[in-house]
Amino acid sequence: MKKFFCLFFSLTMIFTLGSCAVDHKDDSSSTDPALAEKTAVNIAVLKGPTGMGAAFLMKKNEESEAANKYTFSIENTPDAITGQLVSGALDIAAIPTNLAAVIQNKSGVNIKIIAVNTLGVLYLLEKGDSISKISDLNGKKVITSGAGSTAQVIIQKLFGNTSADITYASEHAEAVTLAVSGSYDICILPEPFVTTLLSKNIGYKIALDLTREWEDSGLGVLPMGCLVARTDFIEKNPATIESFLTEYASSVEYANTNTLDASAIIEKYGIMPAAIAKTAIPGCNMVCITGNEMKSAVKGFYNVINGFNTTLIGGELPSDDIFYFSKLRGDLG
């Protein structure tokens, strides 16, 4: 390890003086003994539920209390993260679960899913009191969004046997607008747009939690978001991955149990406004699921997606090599 850091520091100085490359490590550790043994890790998360679980870890990192030296970036879209993973600019990222399969199948870059970090965030809301189960949607008019995404797969799987008339708006915000306008009395939305609609106080309420409906239908856990890491980084830094997962799990627990404080931290890092986050957190289903439970959940979800729209997972089911198992934790694999 010491030889690695000495060599790395030398290369850093060469690259910095020559201005010919972006340094992957932060050389501030050379002047701060407290950081000398910390590994530099570049991480990207998304605004919204997929990135919220990392907020407390960001705070610890800023206060130099994290096990590693993290550099976080917060992106608006998954596409902004994909290119950085492919180029090697990122080591770890929080992305939609299906995108991990697309990257593995299409980019030629070897990544691994190291954890499920977000379960389902879709909810069915209605203005009234007519829906308590899926079959109650028969003959009903519904507005939603996410056509061509995994949201549509989930909706088709759960409501495909009903006679519901489901219309897809171009984006989540448009679906909220149509619901507010009175054009629809039933809508399917993800958090935080659920909170946005409920805040209008126009009579909407949550009628169905689609994550619970998914589980009650015998489909298992609904893993919509995950953490991935480049395989080359994992192989070079196995202990770093383990310490990151431990810290991330603690960060998620903090958000789930300290809603008010977590909301302020989430806003501080530009992930979501605190006023929305404090209400949305319980519905964002932030988790840190690893090992065989992770594999079982993701494989089940991939199998469902493959039956509806295989392009959403890059044209084929990824091999089991996409899943990370920790020798340090004794995962069986």
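The above is record 1. Record 2 follows with the same two-line structure.
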Amino acid sequence: MLKRLTIDNFALINHIDVAFDDGLSIITGETGAGKSIIIGALSLLLGSRADSKSVKDRKEKMVVEAVFDIGDYDLRALFESYGLDYFPEETIVRRELLPSGRSRAFINDTPAPVSQLKELGEMLIDVHSQHQNLL
């Protein structure tokens, strides 16, 4: 379960820190409120391709970080296969895009390849959007 999402220097966002409570979370708002930017940052965090054009201030690094409670997901074996520390109550996933254009990813403060973010992300997040029922 996603517990907290922090975004710095991404698209139109200087800094936001959103805490999510237990249960269903729904992001709503008017057109242009920034919903898609938040979803874009979350997608980047979970393995989407990084693009330096999404950095607001290109002299500073962009950071997207999320804290997950993964205790109910039985992921110990996956973390062990990656050689990562396993903290089920508070797993931290972070993605940075440096001013040089270089991207870095971390799982529990250990450097990780984007492929690991993708695999882990597929187990942690489902995004359902408007009109998806038409697909």
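The chain has a mean pLDDT of 88.
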